[in-house]
Input
Amino acid sequence: MEGVRAVRILSVLAVASILAGTWMISPDSDESIGTNEGGEPFFAEESDSSEDGQLEQSRDEDNDGGEGSELPSRLIIGGAGALGSLLIGSMMLEFVKVTVLIALVSPMLAGMKRNREDMLTRGRILGYVEANAGIHFSALRDGLGLANGVTSYHLHTLESTGQVISWRDGKLRRYAVSTLSIEEVGRIKNPIVGTRLAILEVLADSGSVGVPGTEIRERLKISRQLLSHHLSELRNVDVVEAASNNRRPNWRISDKGMDILAASREISTKEAVR
Output
């Protein structure tokens, strides 16, 4: 899946940046300790003659190293900001959450011993995806009552072995079994929705006679220009067709349109439930 490697690299760099910044600001021993003739410890004193010179040198070092002294803080802030961005993105966008889970959680789960329960869980997920083509990550997770990490791990495994495909749909990531035909995947990825779905609903019961454009406009309360636009787009993909060769023919839904309408109804119903 795209973005997994980038998330892993970003996370490693962010953690390394925080650790490096923390190490750089850790206190060091600046005082030199000696012993006197009796073996007792004492702090070495500098001669008065060298105090002024060292003071000047210290000031020069402070002036020259002003930017360097800010480096640890910048490293920590930058690393924390990168990790915070991933966290916020995961909370707001489902496809980011899925990518982060696969990148960071899946490797840990993959290291665990595989057992029969893992195979059963994977089988449940595969069956659920097959029965609900186009389902998005959160709906699948909630439908099976699984944790985020477990869901992402098994979906990633199924996708890696070619049993499942996925694609980004706005803020969501959707899944389907890989055995679907290209046409079926196309219908799932691009369902008929909104006004065009409403037009197909009007035409669905008209049979071969069809419905005139004026009746469609009256039932849907849309303008003639808008209806003309949608009918043209639907006709270009062979979803609707003219019932006659008249200048203003009735319109009817094609066999292909009936299949698409059924798929679109199913997707719309599932989305409404979720």
